[in-house]
Each structure stands twice: as C-alpha cells, then as structure tokens.
Amino acid sequence: MSPTYETRLQPSHAPAPVRPRAEQTHHVVRWPEFGHGGPFAALDTPDVLVTELREFFRSLA
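^ thats the sequence. predicted structure below, dont judge the formating
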C-alpha cells in the first residue's frame, strides 16, 4: 500500500473530481475542503491549518 496522505483543498485549487484519481493510487485518510483561504494556508488561515494538522496526526495514533 502506498503512504498515507492528507490534502487540503481551497477554492483556488483543483476541483473535487481529483479525489477519485487520488484514491486510485494513494491511501487517502482525510480530504477536507475549505471555503476560504488561499495558496498560503499557514499565512492566510493559520488556526485552521493547525487544527487540521492536529486532527490528521491524531488520526494516525
């Protein structure tokens, strides 16, 4: 099995139909989509990014 990945889609990123293709070759455990923010999540919405990273790593434990 391939490594576990998390992705974070924002309005300016690729549309949702990318998910089925990603699931064909990767073990996707989370796929959150956000209605705000931009390509620099750490600067645009740091609180949302930190929450998502914590939830992702918590799910691996």
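The radius of gyration is 12 Å.
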